[in-house]
Batch of 4 targets.
Target 1
Amino acid sequence: MEQQKRICVLGAGIVGMTTAFMLKEKHAEWDVTIIADKFEQDTLSDVAAGIFRPSTSFKGPSPEITKQWLVDAYHHYKKIQNSIKTVEAGVQEVSGYVFSSKFPEVTKNQFLEDLLPVYRPANALELQICPGNWKYGAFFTTLVIESRYHLPWLRKKFEMIGGKIVKRTIPINSFNDVDDYDLVINCTGFGAKKLCLDHDLVPIRGQVFKVKAPWVKMFFYGDYDTYIIPGIDFVTLGGCRQFDSFKEEVDKYDSASIWERCTELLPNLKNAEVTREVAGLRPHRIPVRVEKDIVTTSSGKHLNIVHHYGHGGYGVTTAPGTAKYAVQLAEEVLSGTKSKPLSKL
Ligand SMILES: Cc1cc2nc3c(=O)[nH]c(=O)nc-3n(C[C@H](O)[C@H](O)[C@H](O)COP(=O)(O)OP(=O)(O)OC[C@H]3O[C@@H](n4cnc5c(N)ncnc54)[C@H](O)[C@@H]3O)c2cc1C
């Protein structure tokens, strides 16, 4: 009989929760524990609007793998959306427009054009739907995955099949606390910067309003990171993308700019009730890190790690695709495919 494997998934954002659930669902006999210091509404994943819209620059280790991640992620969510669990799981279909007054390229997306059932240029009448001098546009139908529903849904499913959850902080630059596991899957998002001293991981700061505006049924993107994305209970208004900015607090100048840009794009948002404003640091890394490693801890132990972080502004979009890949790497590690120690703490 196969010896029981003990696996620790570090991190309980969309990446960690999805990975842990997929692992436990596929290998019921493995002992899977999630360790994290923040859960659900305290994670970055809760800040996201959750629209399935990868950037054209989203990058994995190769173009083929990147494409496979996106295909796997989309079909994973689409299957949930087609099931009766849609509302509970926070996955719903949404259509809308991307407009630009100057840049035709922002209305194109090679990943989505290949994947979505509807992705087409906006016609002349559609370019007049929103105030503004819109010259270029695209209409498409995609998915919104709302972490506020999806994370508790995943947690419930994970615990129902025997997954364990522990609240704990892992000290900076040290995996010593978890070196008694057969494998650690490191899904710490921006936390990996300190945990692994990863200089390639850079914050891209974002800020959004969450408003009550149930009359908004479609998403709209305008120039300069302006977006309006309806979820189940709230509409997310954004935004900004500030490279290498570590400011976690809401910035009043960004608030003013976001409010002005969004209400210009959709004037009836002026009547919306603001329920909260929040900022977050997108864990940006090129490429996203999903790879095997062996760390020698200070006690001299060789610890197997699968790193799984650095999804930038697209972690909700891509989590199921990268998680499937991370699970494959975990299986390779636990089946005894040997690799040499790479990192030393
Ligand atoms: C304004 C904004 C809007 C966004 N909109 C979208 C969108 O529409 N679509 C999309 O796909 N993406 C979007 N994103 C990006 C998305 O939020 C991230 O890519 C995603 O949340 C990353 O998930 P994660 O699980 O890696 O990280 P997180 O959600 O940050 O989770 C990290 C986990 O690791 C744990 N952790 C970290 N360090 C430690 C430690 N030392 N010890 C213990 N635990 C630790 C944390 O407690 C947490 O549980 C947006 C981001 C922002 C800021």
Note: The radius of gyration is 20 Å.
Target 2
Amino acid sequence: MTHAIEAMDLVKKYGQVTALDGLSFTVPAGTVFGLLGPNGAGKSTTIRILTTLSTPTSGTATVAGIDVLGHPNEVRRAIGVVTQASGTDPQATGRENLLLVAQIHGMRGRAAKSRVDELLALFGLTDAANRLAKQYSGGMQRKLDVAMGLVHRPSVLFLDEPTTGLDPQARSEMWAEIARLARHERLTILLTTHYLEEADHLADHLVIVDRGRLVAQGSPEELKSELRGDAVVIDLSPDASVDAARTAIEGMAGTREITVSGRSIRTRVDHGASAVPAALAALERSSVPVAAVTVARPALDDVYLRYTGRTFASADAAQEKVEAAR
Ligand SMILES: Nc1ncnc2c1ncn2[C@@H]1O[C@H](COP(=O)(O)OP(=O)(O)O)[C@@H](O)[C@H]1O
Ligand SMILES: [Mg+2]
């Protein structure tokens, strides 16, 4: 099996609302795949269909090579699901929560206990195993959620917004955890996120979804490199000649879109890292003193903007308003 997930032309309508509008993508086995989109893009709807919790209005999908519409029970055995809302019982301990899931999957006695111990250790929860889940921090609760999705050793794990609501420290711990799982447990992970940074950090491949449609796909690096290069910003010293600096930068090979604002000169180049020393040398030859140089890689926000004409943050905020008004 080369593809762990194949979604083909998924459409989902809720009355007048088209949540998915012909979404197709494939996920290679053993990779971390990101579904990135602002609120309301259709991410949770996609997860619900792929995990057999909802059926598409039209379109088909396979998970672990199994048709989600034809054989939902087989799909459920092959997957782990961590939904956006926590599935833990707050009045039970971490260990009890995991044991309950093990029992639901038909595991008993020593087999159940050893799998639970293994997962507690994997997520650093051994010391907290006998505390009630409601006493866990947000980050610990989310780890317990993920551990619960892994009890039956699924081959495909679905994580719907695994770090939403976590503080930055807990978020980066969760990132490390997810990256480790992908490496050591030979899992395919599909995660959704509305954090650009998270998709950038974690996903081998990602699709950017907007209004139920795919707007771009590729590795984070591929998507950003489509934007043709890095921005280099040179801040000149107070006594430098801006005109001389501009002439020097224009004379360099490979600089484009040169703009000047105040004492800053901004240009786009193919490779920021190699352009910086060349720019400094050119300015030095022209006797232009420099205060600071920064290189900004294109961010996924620039990718989203290019394909949709609006910034990611504004799309996210707009949808939150729509949903609040309902
Ligand atoms: N059960 C439902 N009934 C009606 N509309 C829904 C339902 N679930 C989702 N939607 C709508 O479908 C769109 C996509 O929602 P969702 O998949 O939850 O987006 P995301 O997870 O990307 O934020 C939104 O406009 C949302 O309001
Ligand atoms: Mg969602």
Note: The longest helix spans residues 168-184.
Target 3
Amino acid sequence: MFCVIKSAAQKVPSAPMLPLVISVKQKLGLVWSSGALWKEQRTFASTTLRKFGFGKRCLQTQIMEEVDCLMEKLEKFGSKPFDIQDTLNASVSNVICSFLFGKRFEYEDSTFKRLITLLHNLFTTTNVSSPVVIFPVLRFLPMFKVTTIRKIVNDIYEFIKEKIEEHRQNFDESNINDFIDAFLLEQTKKVENSTFTDEQLIITIKEFFAAGTETTSTTLRWALLFLIHHPDWQTKLQRDIDEVIGQGHPTMEHKDQLPSVEAFTLEVQRLANVTPHAAPHAPTEDFYYKGYFIPKGTFMIISLDSVMNDPNIFPEPHKFNPERFLNDRGVCGGEQKDKLLPFSAGRRVCLGESLAKMELFLFLTRFLQKFRIKPENPDCVPPLEGTLGLTNFPKSYNLILLKR
Ligand code: HEM
């Protein structure tokens, strides 16, 4: 994979520090940790995800319950134009909140609403390839909004700390309900130099909460926008879904019977390119790559973008063409599917990949079963242009959902 390599942002003078740099320097959580800590914590996180149903049938049921709550809420908009962002974010976030905190939140819950907004602001104001990451001195300029970002991160931490404290108060080791409980149980083992510290817990929750909400929700918002731009594809997908499922609940067993839905989703992921820079990494040892010397500790930004738009893999890369993922028999697969890397690759591949794929399929299929998605103004369709923050997100837009 082609890598863009930027100079190290290691020597950072006194406060206020860039939150991204603080995260990197803490070396805690999953995204910014490495070595033995990362290995132990990644194993623990994936085991706990599986224990609470990831990849199992019960998770599907939980996601579908959330999808149904969302559909009910959306029906209330009638045929009025509205921006779906906050409602969709809340719904997607609830899936990960159930795993982390053992509960979902009402969309109207004011604390939850505020948290979702903070998270969205964090994703839209932070950019890993921003000049301020390379030249930390720029953080003093108001345009880089460092103080705003710091405040957002602190507020998110406060919410998480509160939830951990509630769990600590009610902790019962014979009743482990969610990720926080499972982590607190590990803490009771009192292992010397344990990686299960309070700080590690807070940061991991923040990362799960952030990674599990904005990425998936942003991909869905792109998918709705592509459906608005390509009503022919909307008709095709609806026809296929009507034939295979009708109005019954979609399940993952339907996915293979709906190759068009998968091909459409893959093409959206390719063009929307929600995480074009994956997560930055730094090598722990000096090494050579294609003749370039890369010293230990270099801040490296991985360009997934270069893969998604590689004309050797995806001919006419800027053209929306889900057919590229379908073979002559209409089956979704082949080299192009294998080479698409929206979740990155290797040992650091996205931990939530299977959950995200499940969510994308179930949310999108239900949307198409329930609604015809239309632009607010057919003469002025919102642009398919992204803005780069921590994710590549579409500009805010209004849509109309017409009940089918
Ligand atoms: C469409 C949705 C998603 C996309 C496009 C996506 C993409 C990514 C990418 C590109 C990375 C960086 C991999 C690297 O470092 O090279 C990543 C890491 C990660 N993602 Fe996702 N993600 C999505 C959904 C989720 C969900 C739902 C979760 C929650 C369970 C999640 C949890 C994580 C975690 C914990 C990491 C850090 C893994 C590690 O460094 O060991 N992601 N994701």
Note: The chain has one domain: 3-403.
Target 4
Amino acid sequence: MKLSKTNYLVYRDCAHNAWVKVHKPEVYHAEPLSVFEQAIIEIGNDVDVRARELFPGGVLIRRGDAVGTAQLVDARTPILYQPVFETGRYTTACDILVWNDALAAYDLYEVKASTSGEGRSKAKDDLYAHDIAFQALVLRENGVPLGRLNLVRLDSSYVSDGTLDLDRLFTREDFTDRVAPLLDAVAVEMDAAHDLLQLPALPSAPCVCIYKGRSSQCTTFGYINPNVPAYGVHDLTRIGQSPKKLRALVDSGVLAIEDVPESAELTDNQRNQVNAAKRRRPFVEIAPLAAFLDDIRYPAAFLDYETYPCALPRFAGYGPFNHVPFQFSLHVVERPGGEAIHREFLFTETTCPDEPFVAALKASLPAEGSIVVWNKPFEKGINAKLAERLPAEESYLAGVNERVVDLMDVFTAQMVVHPAFRGKTSIKWVLPALVPSLSYKTLAIREGATASETWNAIVTGELELDEARAARDNLLAYCGLDSLAMVEIWRALLGIAAAREYREAG
Ligand code: SF4
């Protein structure tokens, strides 16, 4: 079996995982790709296709056509898209090859749907350098004369004027000098990866993620570690940042939350999580909870945004991956004990939603009182970006941001810890624990990434008229539940704060 570039990169991350990917695809792909993961793939394809326009007039190679590629390379075809190369052990497809007369060689362009610029991750650049090195070695073995090795990605500082200037949108970075020193080591690593992936049985080395928090583990962790419970010490809040503590627990055989001994060295938050799990009942810090709830001013407005992170900017003022705010749902409670009045906005025209979005906010949000959201950096960040694009609305949006209260703070600050939260603070975990009568399970759209993709399918005309109508209804139902869920969680918290058992305990 030939080693592909993708499998080599998975191997670099973890040999176990690469072996499972190749030999147990039913385990590796046991969880279907999430809508978010699918969207990343589609975005990558879109960016790839647009990047070809930087080098127009090329020949697009059919998937897997190494023979056709070889003929075109032999004929020195000036520009090739997706050329395929194989050796006895390896296979790879490049994004773009461009013949360079001056060097009498092909320049390689690897396209990534990520952004360049300040703050980019060194680890990512290292990954890209290895990615290009793999290709360079396979091309070299095929006798392809190679010139410069380049990375093409999106310029994070690019701001569209309403059109796409591809020369400014994409950066072309010469990675030749970064890749050259890696080639010998990558060749050795490729050999090792190839040989390991031929093994009929899983390598016996231990799975090192046994000492990492849940978010660092791959999807095959459960297969390799069947003795680790689905909810256990790996799910302790921020345990990934305390590897010594996790190692001490694992090495002493403690895997279930309920088995964590009193003597274990934990943070207060971790200890609260353990106690809630052991006692099988919530833990409440009544004084800070009461103070938090007292700070929410009437009319209390519960607000939720939906947005679409657009890799290739569609509207003036947008840069790569800027979020397009297309929908909000608002529930307003005017006075203590009052009903929640629902208002909503959903924009499905093909034009820029910014102005209608802010106009609808102005028409819907009360002029005073608290604006309650879940995870305030998100809504506040969207408002700040709107203010940049609509300077006339800057002071209004700044005023909105000043009134924002984050209901999630109750849970991140552990004013309430419920065993069913399992250490999570997402509304998708908090709602069923505190308000079991409300659920996302019956909805067609159950999370934000699906909402984003649904909106994109509507506005790009992928859906028939009746499908688009149903999709709109699904979006309204989903976003509506997000803001209603906050209302009901807030009411549940008011009930908890008033309950005698907690007041006495607190
Ligand atoms: S859980 Fe970690 S060590 Fe184990 S297979 Fe996955 S990536 Fe590798």
Note: The CA atoms of residues 114 and 124 lie 10 Å apart.
